[in-house]
Amino acid sequence: MAAYEREIPFLSIPEPESSVHGLSAVWGRGNQLILHTGCGQRRKAEGSGDQVVYHQTPSTLHQVEWQTDMHNPHTRKLVMQSHDVFVSLQKQSPEDKNASRKPQLIKCSRHYRAFIAECVQDLRKASLDPNVDQTEAREYGDQCEIFQTIGLIWSLCEILFVETLPGGIVLQQLLDWVKLHFTEGDVKARNILMAEEIETTEEYWSAIYIYILQGRLTEARHMLSLDPKFQHDTHGAYGRIDELMRRMPVFGTLSRQSLAEFDLKWRHWQDTCRQCLEDQSFVSYPRLEVVCKILCGDQSVLLQEVGDLIQELGGWYHLMVTRLLYTNPTVKAMDLHYHAKASMDACGVSGRMTSLDSILDKALEFDIYQMIKISSATLSNWWFVAHLSDLLHHCGQLDSHQLNFGSDLREFLLLEYSSTLMSHTSFWQVVADYLDHCPQFGRHYLELFIERIPLKTERKALKVLKACEDRDMKEQAQSICKVLGMRCYRQGRLGSALTWCLRSHDPTFATYLADKFLTEYSLKGGFTNIDLLDNLGAGMLLSDRLTFLGKYREFHRLYEQGDFSDAGALLLSLLRARLAPKQFWLTLLTDALPLLELDEVVFSSKQTYELLRCHEELERWFKSEEYKTRILPKKSKGQLELEKEKLELLQLGLSRNIAQALLKEGCGSLQGS
């Protein structure tokens, strides 16, 4: 079989320096590449030496996307509508063989068909809109033709694989198929009926022939009755042809007659039609004679007198349905490919089949895999093959056909379709739902995709985060929280940054933000976002520095409430635990000064000795190389004098407190004795 491939378009990137530096690319989301000129320099041989070539102008980023058929406003509507049907379909298990599933599957298929038809109408209107750019209108027109083709194929697949009838007789469904997709007869009839006076022109007879070719004999009889000759039919030819059409037997699924009984009636009716031809009942009426020959299934008439009409209606597949209608009305679905082959030979298309011919031919042969393969290679989007394969999978018509790289056919097509949607910013939720139902690789695709979703607003970020939490994607959820936390920090919103940090469970970032809160306190003498710090709860255990921050805020709260004893004990425990950075020790010891100056002795002698040891350790640190190289160069002369003054005040306050604490403890021991 010949290979079927899409035409590969040529794209020129307007980057002058690419001829020197080449082009580099980075993958975007889905079918998206970000192109730019090469690394910035390149060594090239020139004579005996090398020359370094640099960029003359800054590199420009070029965003290249492909397979974006589903991104315009009209096809986006189809994406959203079909997504709802897809999700509802996944709630039904393919293993469930209950007969009640079949009506639901047929309903889903018809929903898909209705959405395709609606999309065709929208694209047709857009292509004819005078306000639309000419190039864009041409693209809409091309897409309209593609979706018309998709609708034609889908309808046939629904007949063959979804809405299968008991006994396998499909003629009435095929007649509905050609009636739905080939409406030329209705258009011609409408033009004739809108005229002030009915004229039996070529178009008038073409409308009648089309109705008869499609088995719509009631409409054909109505059009025939409009002929003025019908009212003055002295020979009875019009009445006779009308009676033949009226009496044609039709086998329906709800018919109470058996197949054998219908076959007997149909043969008797066609014998009557042939007898009229033999009696030359219509020899004076060549148009009616053509009608009678069609009713008799005369192939020469179908290929000659009305051959042009059949080609206008669609060619071999319309010829196949018409021949079956008038030669073999009880044909079974499994025998259709024999009749398709005969019709293709009659129309001379066997050696020059189009893509559509090949797809329909494979469908009639019940070769689902080849049909999907050709459709994937020739149609411009993955929407059709992805949704059709999923529907056939639920109908039990598509086996788990494993591909070489481990995925089955259904999952591969769903992954490809999802990839075409990834580059559009509004489809991320749709993509996630499709990937959820790809058991082999869907989770991996989704993890990589979520990491690349642009989080332009906090509202969208919360939605993406909720999607991650629903799917237990902890790493991706943490990554999103980190990104938002860093964004809030850059915007100067420390409280929001800390909130996102707590959700991300990132100890490194928590330590960094805690240092920023402490630096802010050192500069301003107070905390912002007090409510957040007062309600850290177990979140403060995320890092030692954050624990210190939470406990330090608790110290301030105890002090403000007048609980000086507990406040002093907490302050001492913070120094003892060594959770605070060394450069913040002076602030902690300074916070002890108001407690040292109270009339009531807050610190015992033992606690005061601990504070003195911390004071001495801080003085030693001020003399260390670490302080002199990292901290000292950043301080002004005024800051250094202030530190020196604080250390002296602390020394004085601690000495005074030791005396008071020893005196109090001594008095207490005397009273006890």
UniProtKB/TrEMBL annotation:
<protein>
    <recommendedName>
        <fullName>Nuclear pore complex protein Nup85</fullName>
    </recommendedName>
</protein>
<dbReference type="GO" id="GO:0006606">
    <property type="term" value="P:protein import into nucleus"/>
</dbReference>
<keyword id="KW-0539">Nucleus</keyword>
<keyword id="KW-0906">Nuclear pore complex</keyword>
<keyword id="KW-0509">mRNA transport</keyword>
<keyword id="KW-0472">Membrane</keyword>
<keyword id="KW-0813">Transport</keyword>
<keyword id="KW-0811">Translocation</keyword>
<dbReference type="GO" id="GO:0006406">
    <property type="term" value="P:mRNA export from nucleus"/>
</dbReference>
<comment type="function">
    <text>Functions as a component of the nuclear pore complex (NPC).</text>
</comment>
<comment type="similarity">
    <text>Belongs to the nucleoporin Nup85 family.</text>
</comment>
<keyword id="KW-0653">Protein transport</keyword>
<dbReference type="GO" id="GO:0017056">
    <property type="term" value="F:structural constituent of nuclear pore"/>
</dbReference>
<dbReference type="InterPro" id="IPR011502">
    <property type="entry name" value="Nucleoporin_Nup85"/>
</dbReference>
<dbReference type="GO" id="GO:0045893">
    <property type="term" value="P:positive regulation of DNA-templated transcription"/>
</dbReference>
<dbReference type="Pfam" id="PF07575">
    <property type="entry name" value="Nucleopor_Nup85"/>
</dbReference>
<dbReference type="GO" id="GO:0031965">
    <property type="term" value="C:nuclear membrane"/>
</dbReference>
<comment type="subunit">
    <text>Component of the nuclear pore complex (NPC).</text>
</comment>
<dbReference type="GO" id="GO:0031080">
    <property type="term" value="C:nuclear pore outer ring"/>
</dbReference>
